[in-house]
Write a structure and sequence with these properties.
Chain A: InterPro entries: tRNA_splic_suSen54 (IPR024337), tRNA_splic_suSen54_N (IPR024336). The complex is a heterodimer of chains A (455) and B (317). Chain A contains 14 helices and 12 strands. Chain A has 455 residues and is α+β, with helices and mostly antiparallel strands. Chain A folds into 4 domains: 54 residues, no CATH class; 125 residues, no CATH class; 181 residues, no CATH class; 49 residues, no CATH class. Chain B is built from 10 helices and 11 strands. Classes of the chains: A alpha+beta (455), B alpha+beta (317). The interface between A and B is large, with 84 and 86 residues.
Chain lengths: 455, 317
């Protein structure tokens, strides 16, 4: 880090072309933030400043530090304001989804009339609407603006229901004014609206911990949202859905498995041993791994045949590998978010195939590296995605890096998120001897699992 | 900014994590107690980026424990405390809503003022440009004496415009106050407050939770903290804590910290890897731990005095 820092300091023009410097890795000097005109919505970020090596008793340093702290104080105390044009009101519904009271028809028009001002008294019917997520806890009677394009679920009264993480993200970025449910029936008090705006603190207290939302999951959600990604809950979100998800998720891979099996050699130890014995009893071969020359005597016309005969070590093929036991999938090694890039067009009603699958880990709950079984089961729960495309065909290392299944681990260490991409690559599938001229580039070793930093 | 909040500072305990929402508390703890935490919230003024983050501040259990042990802070079960919102009396509600409205009005005025001053500035700039152009025209006109009449006509014109601008802003005082007084309820901006404590009373000490449970690395954490280091979570950099010699706002870190139990066997490879990593980024790799176990002493605080720390540096010969 320090090397990179020095380079940047010496050569600031280079900083923009250095992709490895992640500004969010470090504590930034807030003085640069306040140079921005915060009332104008300019999206550009300030450049980072110099830091000192160690404290010294000079007044200069004390002054600069207190300036920085002051700037931080000002930036952090910036209020969340809602101008009349962009003001969107929502209501907190601690008991989850409820339909508008249809029991009293004369009241209904009155409700729709002033739905923007007064909260309805929660009426809890026993049958819940099938398509609304049971974890929703905030509704927006009059959703407007582009922010609601990829979040929430609408009901038939055109109210938009938000999941806790969606509501918390929106209130935190100052785009939503959530109200506490009014204790008094608005019909009784008349025009008086006593619903109190919810504070950010109250929102955290009410939403984190609701419906399976942990602070770690929220940190990942909001961090990716800030960067423009689209996120949706994956079926692995809650424990109950786990079984269902496994059946659902593994079915495509198992069908692939069945199709492929007859053509390629059988998977598992038995299959490999079988082919091994077949090969041993091959009457045309004089080769023997136990007694004689491994490649056999006679005339060899091609190196390829020789190499092929030398390849006696069984290897792992992700395509034909037997599906693992679904019960191996344990918390927290489950896919909890489906993620789409900002450029991908997203439709709430028909979300496209997820581009990334993210599992969220907390370092305080899971202090050790995941075991092979846990990682294997996690990868197994994602669909097969073999490397494809012209570029992949050409470049072996890209193929290896991409892998046949892949998942992203978001490791949250007390609010600091690191992303790791874990891919299931098939080194055995890359026959180096079939390549003309062999591989280029630096030598790299590795086994079935390959890890690389994302971003 | 230099104010001291009322002690003990309530730390929100939300679903197993420790959060701070009050900016006064955050600034105070950073300044006086060297507790930085990690900012995890979105800044409403620039929401689409991850470089500058805002409140709330997430505290490590170690940090929360340290503050509780020093009697600077207390732990409050926030979800339970917020339930008090439903029991607020009607008068309290009305008063709180009135306060919020007054605050919103204040911001509306600020914004109007800002807009006005901006407009004034652009107007001034325009005027200056015009004046310059006028001066140029004058110079040109002076050179070509034949056109004196037109240039003289232009100069008073601009001064007249100046007068018009002054006129425009002279009655401004009365104008800006009149819409504010006439339509206060419509123009007041709605506010999402940062914390719930004005409307809620400060939670009584009987409701405070016990001091947070801490990992075995706590003695080393407390030891380094007592020596003036600022500590932050360090997994991203390959260690348990990052130790900064001063406020991370202004200084780079000096140590990658990993804690071990005193009798724990340490894999030599871990030391080599840590030492190489630290040296590679111009930091020391620091390991340490308390010599006494918790059974041998009365409290966690006593163990802190028995901590010893060692730093490793990779000296390639």
């Amino acid at each position: 880090m320090a090397d990179a820092d020095d380079d940047v300091l010496k050569n600031p023009a280079n900083a923009s072309v250095q992709p490895e410097v992640d500004l969010s890795d470090e504590t930034q000097d807030f003085r640069f933030l306040n140079n921005l005109n915060i009332y104008a919505d300019s999206g550009s970020l300030p450049r980072r400043g110099e830091k000192d090596f160690e404290p010294n008793p000079t007044e200069h340093q004390t002054g600069v530090l207190s300036e920085s702290r002051k700037a931080m104080h000002i930036a952090l105390s910036f209020p969340r304001l809602h101008g009349s044009k962009s003001h969107v009101i929502a209501f907190y519904a601690p008991d989850g989804y409820f339909p508008l009271a249809e029991v009293s028809p004369p009241k209904a028009p009155q409700h729709t009339e002033k739905s923007t001002e007064s909260p309805e008294k929660p009426v809890r019917p026993t049958p819940r609407s099938a398509n609304i997520n049971p974890d929703v806890c905030v509704y927006v009677p009059n959703p407007k603006g582009t922010l609601f394009k990829s979040v929430g679920q609408s009901d038939r009264w055109n109210r938009l229901w938000l999941l806790p993480e969606e509501a918390l993200y929106l209130i935190e970025r100052g785009s939503l004014d959530i109200r506490w449910p009014s204790p008094t029936d608005p019909a009784v008090t008349g025009q008086d609206d006593l619903s109190i705006p919810m504070s950010l603190q109250a929102a955290y207290a009410s939403f984190v911990g609701h419906g399976g939302l942990t602070l770690e999951r929220y940190s990942v959600y909001t961090g990716l949202k800030r960067l423009g990604y689209t996120l949706a809950r994956a079926p692995g979100w809650c424990d109950e859905a786990e079984q269902q998800e496994n059946e659902h998720e593994t079915s495509p891979s198992s069908s692939v498995h069945e199709n492929v099996k007859p053509m390629l050699r059988g998977a598992g130890l038995a299959g490999i041993l079988g082919s091994f014995f077949n090969w041993l009893h091959d009457p045309h071969s004089t080769a023997s791994t136990t007694t004689g020359p491994m490649i056999g005597t006679g005339i060899h016309r091609h190196y390829m045949d020789v190499y092929r005969k030398l390849a006696i070590i069984p290897w792992y093929d992700p395509v034909t590998a037997p599906p693992s036991n679904p019960s191996d999938i344990t918390a927290p090694f489950r896919v909890v978010f489906h993620v789409w890039k900002p450029s991908t067009p997203f439709k709430k009603s028909a979300p496209p195939t997820p581009e990334f699958r993210v599992a969220v880990l907390s370092t305080r709950d899971q202090a050790s590296m995941p075991t092979m079984t846990q990682l294997g089961a996690l990868l197994e729960s994602t669909p097969l995605d073999p490397p494809s495309g012209e570029k992949m065909e050409r470049m072996m290392y890209m193929r290896l890096r991409h892998g046949y299944r892949h998942v992203i681990l978001a490791v949250v260490d007390q609010g600091v998120v690191s992303y790791l991409r874990v891919a299931d690559s098939a080194f055995g599938k890359e026959k180096l001897y079939e390549n003309q001229g062999g591989p280029r580039g630096p030598k790299r070793g590795g086994r079935g699992q390959q890890k690389s930093r994302k971003r | 900014m230099d104010s001291q909040p009322e002690l003990p500072i309530p730390i929100s305990y939300v679903s197993g994590r420790y959060l701070l929402h009050s900016i006064e508390a955050v600034t105070y703890l950073r300044r006086e107690h060297h507790i930085c935490g990690v900012l995890i919230g979105t800044l409403p003024q620039i929401p689409q980026q991850n470089v500058f983050l805002g409140l709330p501040l997430e505290l490590m259990p170690e940090e929360a424990r340290l503050l509780v042990d020093k009697d600077v802070a207390c732990i409050v079960d926030e979800a339970k405390a917020q339930k008090g919102m439903n029991n607020l009396l009607e008068e309290d509600r009305r008063r709180y809503l009135r306060e919020l409205e007054a605050e919103g009005l204040h911001y509306t005025r600020l914004q109007v003022d800002l807009k006005d001053s901006k407009r004034e500035q652009t107007m001034k700039k325009l005027e200056e440009k015009k004046a310059k152009a006028g001066a140029k025209a004058k110079a040109v006109a002076a050179a070509a004496a034949a056109q004196t009449q037109t240039s003289e006509g232009a100069a008073p014109k601009s001064s007249m415009k100046d007068a018009a601008v002054v006129d425009l802003f002279a009655p401004d005082d009365t104008r800006s106050s009149s819409p504010a007084t006439s339509t206060p309820s419509q123009s007041a901006m709605a506010i999402t407050p940062a914390t719930s404590y004005p409307p809620l009373p400060t939670p009584p000490s009987s409701t405070h939770l016990a001091a947070p449970a801490v990992p075995p690395s706590y003695p080393l954490f407390a030891h380094l903290h007592s020596r003036g280091y600022f500590l932050s979570p360090g997994l991203r950099f390959g260690c348990q804590y990052m130790a900064y010699p001063g406020d991370p706002l202004r200084f780079h870190s000096h140590f990658l910290v990993v804690s071990y139990d005193w009798d724990q066997n340490i894999d030599l490879m871990d030391l080599i890897v840590g030492g190489r990593l630290g040296t590679g980024v111009k930091k020391g790799f620091l390991i340490g731990g308390a010599q006494r176990t918790i059974d041998e002493v009365d409290s966690e605080a006593d163990r802190v005095d028995t901590v010893r720390a060692f730093s490793l540096e990779w000296a390639g010969m």
